[in-house]
Amino acid sequence: MVFVRVLTTSVVVALLWVVTRSIRRLFFHRLSHIPGPRLAALTWWYEFHYNVVLPGKYIFKIQELHREYGPILRITPEEVHINDVGFLDTVYAGLRDKYEYPLKALRVPGGVGATADAKLHKLRREALVPFFSKRNVLSLQHLIAEKVDQLSEIIAKHAIEASQINLSDLFFAFSNDQLGMMVKAGEVRPKKKPSTESLPPQERTLTRLEQEGALLALAGTESPALSLGIIFYHLLANPSILNRLRTEIETVPTHASWPQLEKLPYLMAVIEEGNRLSFGVTARIGRRAHEELVFTPSSYATTPGTGVSYKIPARTPLSISTLSAHTAQSVFPDPFTIDPERWLGEAGRKRKRFQMAFTKGSRNCLGIELANAELCLVIAALVRSFEMTLLDTDARDVSFEHDYQIAMPNIGSKGVRVTVI
């Protein structure tokens, strides 16, 4: 009898707690004035359904909800998402802390990219910046070129054998080799003191540095490889773009340097468009502002509800996903169609402020210069040297279907497969 009473009391208390918490989240929470589905405001299980059960689909559901609720949306009990690229600079400006919740999934809290606190992030980043600077990447350009030559040799071998090539796998291996090459280069150049000497002792522990390395390896391989695969799919699927690019590349020497290639406007436009369609880090890694923000929809907001301002309390996790930024109709008309020309001229220069493939602000990607060097040298070498055709590959093999921190195609995709003709 006593057990029944205790059980009944426990159930009643639990129900009261759930009801009380639900009422608070819906009507008395600091974000209760932000539009969005009530279920998303009540519980994280709403996100769980779209990201785990479906899986990796919540980012697309968020876009659908924006069309219903407007450019500002409460997507979890604690988080807000904006679908207005006019607010990008506000969200990613200055020293912003990251939202801790999604960073836990990376399981590498010691990595600079997974560091939530802005001051600690700055400390960790400053130790790495010289290693990834443009000057340092330029000094290693000959090593990158060696790996590009190896890549070309592998493709040439397949051409002789008339065998299928999986470019997606090749590009992943190439990017992985590049990272290993940079590490090895650092080991054999002892003239400078290790950059980690600027860090306090607690930041130089083996565990912390292992986590730093793991995250750098992940970021340094997946992203460039994905961009290269997407770029080459679209080049081979659009001969007019490929022919124009090849004509431009043939205006420079066969072994043109990275700085020479950077001066080719159409090549750089192709790279910008490839990065846009690869979406960079697709996960919502929200920023926390220390001050209250006010969101008023800009002229870039194409969803309903424009004209109404919303106060966003300090420390609210706030994000604009790369999917939102890179498919904004007001900036990128017909956003899922490849169009390098959108990056040419003055209009193209202005669009660069909306490029989020390497994120923005003080937390932008450390490896942006290395990635640009890799993309320039690989694209120039392969476009100049090989005639390829797609084999059993279509848009479904590269289109963004699942959000797994990066844009992933259909689970059954076998990558970009080609033959050399």
UniProtKB/TrEMBL annotation:
Family affiliation: Belongs to the cytochrome P450 family.
Residues where heme binds: C365
Domain of life: Eukaryota
Keywords annotated in UniProt: Heme, Iron, Metal-binding
Higher taxonomy: Eukaryota, Fungi, Dikarya, Ascomycota, Pezizomycotina
Classification via Pfam families: p450 (PF00067)
UniProt-listed GO biological process terms: mycotoxin biosynthetic process
Protein known as: Cytochrome P450
GO MF annotation: an example: heme binding
InterPro entries in alphabetical order: Cyt_P450, Cyt_P450_E_grp-I, Cyt_P450_sf, Cytochrome_P450_monoxygenase
Cofactors required: heme
